[in-house]
Amino acid sequence: MERSANFLFGGTNFNRKKFAPDFAKFKNRKEDDDEDHNKKVSFFEQEEEEEEPEQEKLVSSSSSKKRKRKSANSEPVEGFDVFKSSKKSRSKGKEVEQDTKDETLENPKKELYRRMEQDSLSRKQYNIHVSGENVPPPLKSFTELSSRYGCKKYILRNLAELGFKEPTPIQRQAIPILLSGRECFACAPTGSGKTFAFICPMLIKLKRHSTDGIRAVILSPARELAAQTAREGKKLIKGSKFNIRLMTKPLVKTADFSKLQCDVLISTPMRLKRAIKAKKIDLSKVEYLVLDESDKLFEQSMLKQIDGVVKACSNPSIIRSLFSATLPDSVEELARSIMHDAVRVIIGRKNTASETVKQKLVFAGTEEGKLLALRQSFAQSLNPPVLIFLQSKERAKQLYDELKCEDIRVGVIHSDLPPGERENAVDSFRAGETWVLIATDVIARGMDFKGINCVINYDFPDSASAYIHRIGRSGRAGRSGEAITFYTEEDVPFLRNIANTMTSSGCEVPSWILTLKKKKWKKHRPKRDSISTRPKDSKIEQEE
Ligand SMILES: Nc1ncnc2c1ncn2[C@@H]1O[C@H](COP(=O)(O)OP(=O)(O)OP(=O)(O)O)[C@@H](O)[C@H]1O
């Protein structure tokens, strides 16, 4: 573990082997040139190691002429908006290119530095932070996929049909990494386009449909997310012969996997592990394995299944990648222990909430107070679609029972419902047939409902990562959203933890909350009074 941690974070030692052709170009140069070169390389080593961008360091190692120009080009990225395709950033890119042209190109060594410097500036521009050796440059545009990597036309056509004009920051960096055959673990905000960041390179690398067994596996922690990923993937393979399959219960039961036409299989760990255990499926030819929402997959409850899948994918040249909006250190440790020559990519700051969501804390006092506050807010302005999170299926059912008789089109989803009903709940919400969806954390991760206006944490989330994922169902793909978190007396000790997440994504928090002591929390799910505003007497009557 120690050793792998060192190799991954040991900084970007310049790999002379890999850059042999570049070195060959100037191998006859004088000794002092080499010294000069070493100095400049170490400057890039530093830059690549940094998690927080430090423009000063970049600037200090250049000439004063360059210093001026760079400082003009490298102002801090204000806020983080993944879909910000601002003219400002584009024109910045042009200035950098112009600089490059202006500079003399006579010295290939300088050209190499310039390319590296450009990559650094481009990363700075998109708030991309990388660690690892010889990280490929970020994409400038989707069209570079064909010029640099021979991507088939149908993929570019499908991206254009989806209305994607330019790659998001995670796509800019993760796609070239995976295309260059490197493993990768990536942390980027909710709603920032991670799904296509791993599906795109997979399809480009697999090139064409093959009948030689399953070639790629994507693991998702929940059925709904697996189904969504399959649907998104299918949008990208339109016009090709690729087969993307979702691992469903009937498929596990009935399919003969040795004959099944399947290039990419998308599954929850449980379903796949069952198929492996029943010796129904051969994953030895899998070339790509993606662990989506990897921190969830690495939780104790799923770890055994994940282990089984990772072992079954026994192809020694497999490329594994991990994606999530939250990446705890413990998961990084685990990732490092299973990955080789991996690149770590962080967009913005690790483990922060989306900046496009306006977040608010509301003191509701008691359980009864929460229901009153909810009704009041619906009466004042119900701006659907609204997603409400509760801490357990029992409580989700209770709130649903309370609201279903009212004039609100409400649905519910939790793990007790049969798969068909879960699917219907999601579909009706997507179609706008229900306005309010009451849910447990089963759909807190990864689900991409277009245009959710408001997420209500009816029950206080049990961890900072649960908070980040829940509220991340809103404010996706550059849209704005709102998140309201109710709290009662019981939740006060944990307020500070959420408050920190709120402030680091630019939201205001009452100052008294910031003076509270930080409390270590492990799954804060207090026993709460049941949800009901019916007078206590009438409840007794009914029970009798
Ligand atoms: N390059 C792009 N340009 C515009 N929209 C995009 C682009 N890439 C993805 N999207 C859209 O952004 C939305 C969010 O993408 P996605 O679901 O992949 O986010 P995510 O980062 O996986 O979020 P989460 O962490 O919640 O799982 C989707 O609706 C997707 O279609």
Automatic annotation (TrEMBL):
Keywords: ATP-binding, Helicase, Hydrolase, Nucleotide-binding, RNA-binding. It comes from Brassica campestris. Residues 373-517 form the Helicase C-terminal domain. The lineage of its organism: Eukaryota, Viridiplantae, Streptophyta, Embryophyta, Tracheophyta. Pfam families: DEAD (PF00270), Helicase_C (PF00271). Its EC number is 3.6.4.13. It comes from the Eukaryota. This is RNA helicase. Residues 144-172 form the DEAD-box RNA helicase Q domain. GO terms for molecular function: ATP binding; hydrolase activity; RNA binding; RNA helicase activity. A motif (Q motif) lies at residues 144-172.
